Fold these 4 entries.
Entry 1:
Amino acid sequence: MSLGNPTPGCYSGAMSEHPISNIRNFSIVAHIDHGKSTLADRLIQSTGGLQEREMVEQVLDSMDIERERGITIKAQTVRLDYKAKDGKTYILNLMDTPGHVDFAYEVSRSLAACEGSLLVVDASQGVEAQTLANVYHALDANHEIVPVLNKIDLPAAEPDRIKAQIEEVIGLDASDAVPISAKTGLGIDLVLEAIVTKLPPPKGDETAPLKALLVDSWYDAYLGVVVLVRVIDGVLKKGADITMMGAAARYSVDRIGVFKPKMTDQAELGPGEIGFITAQIKQVADTRVGDTITETRRQTASALPGFKPAQPVVFCGLFPVDAADFEDLRAAMGRLRLNDASFSYEMESSAALGFGFRCGFLGLLHLEIIQERLEREFNLDLIATAPSVIYKLALRDGEHIELHNPADMPDIMKIEEIQEPWIRATILTPDEYLGSILKLCQDRRGTQVDLNYVGKRAMVVYDLPLNEVVFDFYDRLKSISKGYASFDYNITDYKAGDLVKMSILVNAEPVDALSMLVHRTRAEMRGRAMCEKLKELIPQHLFQIPIQAAIGGKIIARETISALRKDVTAKCYGGDVSRKRKLLDKQKEGKKRMRQFGRVEIPQEAFIAALKMDS
């Protein structure tokens, strides 16, 4: 079925009453906890998207993990109908985006489907590190930005100071920033009017060949793969034969609709509209985020630029506790990969842990969320190995290789130099915690780039090696600053470093899951801490167990777990001492033999706790 040229005016019934000039596509960007999802709730409520009895807090945070942690992980979309003061009815397509640095790829994806953004700033806390990062994402996408001051009902709110701060730090005119309280609903009508009057409508030609952006896709147990699309040109109709240009896959559309926030079916989607389609898609790989969807018989001349592929920053191995679950883990990862384009994995095997996967993540929170989702949504028990970053090795024979897993490191004699990734970190903190934060950055081999003041708060810019950040930097930063410091980073380049591979030996056998690359100056401290931790965690056996940290052939730290002594003389009541002596000697012989053949059982909790070690 070819789209042909639709007759003007007969467009979908929906579009004739809603011309393209009455559509507004916008996203909400802000720092973590500044009230994005709560504002989205109020907008849905005040436009009648859900009835009063259906409203729950954080409507768009549909995952259990999002609700429990109080963060947004997946960008969600909803379509609202709003009757403005000028008497016209507008279609508002809202994208709620995550605030955390690990989910920045979700933000950039959502922004590509919109023309404007609401910048939400907490009227008591002001501009934070992630506020800046997300504003720059929005400016890169050529967005019109409307500043919104949230939480003005708090006693600590200082709207005038925060307006001045927005102008000073971001360079946006905040004189007519909208003051609201998303919690109580104060000022929501002003936000809706600002969206309609200040944000531009989308542009598009409904007579042109179909061109639509694939914004997101996820797996639904009943519908198969559901695809979220933003139509740029042309009309997407039910029953149309479509082609995904990047994946070169062809399908027939069998359902079209929008989220209001419930799924609501429609006959078609026109230019500027955001909605979903299903097309009996079975292949996860066919729906690549950022791809261009066009009609098979009347294709668009050029594909959309798409999105930069997300670059994994942190790698770790995920292994099933029970080896029989390996195939289930493979299937679960395939489904999760569809839902999360930035998550990558490849198979690997380990002597200690059996078969599993080497996975790439955008940060430690991302790693934690993926692991939790695999365990919850697919009922898997997993062990994660120590997180590591990608190192670049220059070998003496001129070859250059990337090292994802410290266990695969070639012989040290073959290596010319090891390069590690560095990041440029921006930290905003209240003045009283500045000294502790500078010390933390110095301890992590950081070099200071800049330090200035934004109002009452210090803004510190540091260059830091990424492998010092992935372990527990964020947790340490939050505990030092009592949660007030905010942190944002981007990878700058690779620099050569004096790095060594530290192996952990348990009973003289290397445990590859615990090996890691560390800076030579920190190796002894890290090794000693790891040995002490394992000594607490590995249960006693009937023989003595040495735990050692080694660099090459040199042991740098050691702890010993003493043998569990069974009282073999318990049944000797008095009598000749030689009888007891004989039993003790017999026990000694047995222990010697056990030590030769002794295999140490390391419990799974020991792995996980050792990897979470606080340095």
Entry 2:
Amino acid sequence: MKLRHTAITVAIACALGHSAWADEAAAKKWIDSEFQPSTLSKEKQLEEMKWFIDAAKKLQAKGVKEISTVSETLTTHEYESKTLAKAFEEITGIKVKHDIIQEGDVVEKLQTSMQSGKSIYDGWISDSDLIGTHYRYGKILSLSDYMDGTGKEWTNPGIDLKDFIGTSFTTAPDKKLYQLPDQQFANLYWFRADLFARQDLKDKFKAKYGYDLGVPLNWSAYEDIAAFFSEDVKTIDGKPIYGHMDYGKKDPSLGWRFTDAWLSMAGTADIGIPNGLPVDEWGIRVGADKCTPVGASVSRGGATNSPAAVYALTKYIDWMKKYAPKEATGMTFGEAGPVPAQGQIAQQIFWYTAFTADMVKPGLPVVNADGTPKWRMAPGPNGPYWKQGMQNGYQDVGSWTFFKDHDPDKVAAAWLYAQFVTSKTVSLKKSITGLTFIRDSDIRADYFTQNANKYGGLIEFYRSPARVAWTPTGTNVPDYPKLAQLWWKNVAVAVTGEKTPQAAMDNLAEEMDQVMGRLERAGMAHCAPKLNPKGDPNKYLSDKGAPWKKLANEKPKGETIAYDTLLNAWKAGKVR
């Protein structure tokens, strides 16, 4: 009798379509299974899902049955596409076609949509690196305005924007939020803690360099450690060991190596978080309004071809050729990424934490028998031009982005989906799956307290005040797609030796100025470039601000810190 009653109930529910009973049943099913653990109780999760159910019904009544979204290839986004999109459809009745494509293709399609004025997708997960572009062209929806206006009824009361750790990166000069963070990961220093702990290696290093083998605080120490492993240690367990890893193939991914804040790690920019002002980590200067780009070359007050920038490129080439495996110069980003997991790299100055999940797999040479990593991560060392209060490194922030003039009902539905995949109901499980944190509440969840030892310092880093100094490309960059593509071609000719680092950066700075000059003539909705006239570079080179004068000594004494000391500082709420 009970079975017959259930069958009749289900039949009625199917006949009525997505009734409240059916939707809540689906929500309960997902809450009991996939959406655990969560920072919310199951009761609070269901309450949040009921809001999504009710909002979706209003959109379905307007005829919205399906939406399309896109993101780059990343573990987090694959989880959204394969699992969370299905959950959203079962709970709300709105189908999501969530495409996963290469990052370059996302940018290209976004560019096409901006030029045509017609959005290919209803919602985009686009890097916050484009925040300056989005603000200036005026094609992207201001989420601040939307949530206060027509999008108010489609905005989850439990969204808790203050819990998101990356909203400062998606806020434009007008102080409005334009993008909602969906995933984040920093580039940090990576090292083999098991090798650094060996007494014989510690003794040899100290005897040669006069200080302790440890986490390098400056580029001098990083260089010493690189030389030590590559030239002195040479082999570990019968296999070659290298003190450095990088990539240098002439490929668009080579540009990421530099636009992802390599120059700022050397100290090219001005002091300022999230990005240097008036000169940022690309070397672009803005005017007194903190918004109008006035030049990239030193002759216009920029720093792209300044002594600090040339030093950064020089060290990149020297280290790769001297201390990395010889194959590194012919590798792309994707090819070089898995190499440290193979066990023959002692340290890497520039390592994306998005690789964490792939570096803790059982059986890898860099993983202990108990599943804990032999490696650790730490803040990257600083170059000699770097000063306290500067950006310390890069953090990728893939963020939900919507076109202003797109079908408002489709935007509303895509906004629901964006809030769903970033909601407290699902975000902790998503964080465990992809390790790309967006909410402070997830980082501080009991699950990560109990499992912190599995992640090599990632949890401690994200719980520390140090994390704020790892930031994406900032608002000084007026057109990310147009300017970003200039980097890899110019860096490549320095890698091959066709040009000196100085000549390569001179050409890059000149090309950036040319592009910004065209943008100035074409006009933009907000803060179009207005180039300074060319002048004597010495007029701008200074020891007070960027572009910084050339230092007499670009290799001060190496400094290191014991990893446990660093970890304890983080736990105590200090940077280091």
Entry 3:
Amino acid sequence: MLKVLLVDDEPFILQGLKVLIDWNAEGFEVVATAENGQEAIAYLKENQVDLILTDIKMPMMSGIELLEIIRRDHISDAYFVILSGYSDFTYAQQAIRYHCIDYILKPVEKEQLISILRKVAAMSETKEIRKKDRQKMEAAYLARNMIGLLNGKYDDVNLEYVRNHMQISEGVRYIDIELTEQSDEWEDGMARGLQRDLYQACQEWLREDSNHAIFDVSHDEKSFDIGIIYCDYLAAKSDLTEKAYLTAFHSNLETILQRPVQMLVGKKVQDISGISKSYGTACILKSLVAFHAKKDIYYYENEVQVNQNGIVLCKNSLDALVAAIEQNEKIQIRKNVDGLYEEIGKMGVAGDCVNLNINYLLFQLIHLATEQDNEVNQEKILQFISESSFEEGIMRGSSVHLSRFCCEYADYLTQLRKNVSRGVLLEIEKEVREHYADNLSLRDLSKKYFVNSSYLGQIFRKKYGQSFKDYLSNYRINEAAKQLLKTDKKISQIAEDVGYKDSDYFIRKFIEIKGCTPSKYRKEK
């Protein structure tokens, strides 16, 4: 309902206006009346309204003077309509000067008032649309500046904009939030839709601090994440500790989405200018948590142990393991892993020591792979290989888990050295040409050609400029287009011929790729 304030020094006119029409039916509510301009100003200083209807001739302050003060002192941006018993053009001129939208002569007619209300409603709707568009643009610009800070690519202009448009306190963290159950089999747009649901749920939790949520920070096609800029004041104003606040935040997200959610909490920094350090530690967490026990919330300080309190880095054993991985010697890899765990076991602090030594190993392996191909996302490779080598019943970070991971990573390095992309991608092109109507997936093809699927996905995109899924969709639709022109088959039959069991989905994909429906394509070509 749009809120209305009526101002007139004659009570019976105020009452007559209130009963003249069904205000609610027009989407309006008369929330207050005032007998003079001073009463109106006092009310407006404490309350917001959308429309003010005022008489022009009143004691103490005229309607024109009321309008002038409201505009001059920025008391209200409500729409203004003047009521008068005088058809003097001078009044109308003055009213228009202060952005009055209409001038009605008394006695007010029902149809005329309804007409003005509908005009106000339309103007208000347009104004609200513009306001939302402006808010979206401002949010996008703030996010752009914030992402610059996260990546360490910023100057004083970016920093000042963030500080001026976001409430910031001391004690700042970057938090990565993702849905933990994601599937390659999801239909196009499903993951994106769930990401938007997650973003909205984060904004609802943050309420007036909703601009602390940033959509799509990583820009990784397989990562549907939301970034949160956490500041200590967020927990303090809820009278909670940081841990209690984030636990409640996490629980709220899972309740709303009815899906498991994971939080990766970067290292705390003193000020927003250091947020890139916190963001970097959250990225490190992404590649490490696959080796740690499953949790809802991971804190960098708890998961990434430093060499203190007598915890020792088993450097000789680790270097020997790295050498075995580099040479792809499976037997030696297993022996070195067993030797590493035996050495750790003798120290009596296995949990912390395992974390420290695995972290060191992972960074060494990332370095090895980067030497082979610096354009491949090594952290994603680490995460994928670790998850694929983990099975139920095997403890994360155990010697069996680490042995499997190291053996798979050794194969991955061998693939990089051989530059498998050339031969395998040619074979995959052939697979698509010959079996495009079948249920092809990159995961199955990677098993067939003994290539890590995450690596294969990245080299595929590097060569073709699109994901395998999009490549296959384009090929299928192009084959369908040929059949539309060369045969008189039904569209449902063509859809099935090129691999789509659902005709509606086939039509949506055809429109997306060709820009028109299959029927129109057949008719116009």
Entry 4:
Amino acid sequence: MNDPLATRITPEVLAETFPGAEGIKEIAGDPPIASVLMDGEVAGYAFSTHETVHPQGYSGESFDIIVGLGLDSRITGTTILETHEPMLGPNLIPVERMSDYLDSLTGMDVRRPVRITGQRGVDGVAGATISATAMHSAIIQASRKVARIEGMVAGSTGPLALDRDSYDDETWAQLEADGSVATLDLTRGEVADRLGVKISEDEAKEPFVTLHVAIATPAGIGRNLFGAKWYTNHLAQLELGEHLLVIMGEGPYSWRGPSMQMTDIFQRIQIVQGDKTIRLTKNDQLRHTAIRTEGAPRLNEIGLFRLSSDSGFDVLAPWRFELLVDPQEFGNAAGDAEPVSFSLPYRMPARYVLGEDADLEAAGLKEPTYVLFGLLKESGLNNWQRVWISRLPSIAGLGALLLTLTGILFFQDAITRRRRLHRWLRLGFLAVVVVWLGWMMDAQLTIINVISYFSAAFDANYDWAVFLIDPLVFILSVYVALTLLLWGRGVFCGWLCPFGALQELLANGARWLKVPQVTIPETLQTRLWTLKYVVVVVIAVIAVYSMSTASKAAEVEPFKTAIILGFDRAWPYVLYAGLLLTASLFIERFFCRFMCPLGGALTILGRFHLLHWLKRRPQCGNPCHVCEKSCPVGAVHSDGKINMNECFQCLDCQVDYYDDRTCPPLAARRKRISRLAEAGPSGERPAVAAVNG
């Protein structure tokens, strides 16, 4: 990215970015912009997102995408030259797949509003939503900046511009329906009332004139009215800044008037815009052709005029067409009466105007659209806000999942008193985490998330909005941060990690199938626990020097392979993930316990949590060792204490704690109470030892 733009836009890059280009005329400006030649003429521009808008990806580093932009403000192509995004690479999501996604921008008019969302509509790059959105946004922003620099988006009302090129076949009725053609229909009675003339009822019903008016400059209007050939011919007669006005009439009254033989000014018509009145003259008139629109009425008068900006006419602002009727030209009206005018308001339909929704709304061209039950105006939302609103169902689903987990943690005593309830509640929750949260929503936190958050915290220029592009991951990260402070590492690792949940579900299946389980001696296990801390430190040190290298080192986590990419990856990565899952059949949560850098980082961050809700008794560890043996991850030491740094909050030990058939102190108490009951009222009452709980 530090090389000059001229060396980066190779012939191969130019051919992909600007198909059909002959070469580059020059590269100039700040940011540097290359003028692209076709048929010996400048046909557009090529530029880099890196130098034009200095984009920031998920990694916090910029990326270099060469973009082509035609003179019509449409993107001609894109080429990714360099990226440091953690989810992109030969063995991850291929850059070619991201390129295919960005190809959807080819042909897009950058003057039009562009919606960027993080929904899973970008299935080709699922798992790299933040990177895809950042690149998508950078291309649009860079293209708009270049279009402004090169004067390609100058409009008559600031940020708005007339769309001259868009075209769809439409009938006369369709043109009238959206205001492309405005119609004024007058009867003799309506005119007589304005003139103060009394006429018979039958005469009042007679048609006076029907006028149709349109600005025919946009192809969507003019080409539909005149046909492609004659529309092009009419446009060729215009000078820069001029627009086509077409006036069409039916009925006995002539809007031209007989006096046109003696004067250059059309006496019966005028254009009024604001405080300006524009009179049309013979010099403004162009030679017209027939109206060819399907369903057009039988017209007896057609006029085609040029309206120039020199006259003060603004094609995007409201104006009105006025028909002037002289009393002397209407029957026996009084000769000294003043002419009366009949107005036909006209406003260019919003679909022919280029600009952002907010600018269209401010100009009165578009009604605001409200979202979130009418609370927010859609045009005022930025990219991440649109993503959040578009993913409200998923966010609600995650909210329900987290609320359920919070309820489990707060009411764990009531749940763990019922062994069957706890078992099915936990297995069901873990299944939802694997299938919905992991495989369907891609909401798998990784060590890269933790490193990215820390990097952003120490970078004053980091745009935190980058993290908001993926709402589920962001919400999950906030929840994990809060639960780290309260309960420590176990809440995420034991309940919300899709890969961890997958391991535990497989382990449960293995035990059901009588697969022999390996018990690791406490001394060896203590040494193995340190391995994950070594891994997280190594990755963190690497990240200080290179985030992209750290992303490669983070491949020790199989999360991308098994969860985010759903095993759709090169075979060595699938084999590695498969081996770890196979190990979990014999040693529950093998990877979580001994190798996971994310688990190591969360252990360090949550080491001094506030709440200690897992209950113990004085008998735990001496003489009782039930929980030590039943803990699936070996977090209960031989002395009965729970190592909260290694505890996954599965609550299995609490189930044993409340089970009077499993916990020896409770079992002994139950037996003594049973003997007491058998002795009856007259029997000897044996002393009952106190037991905590």
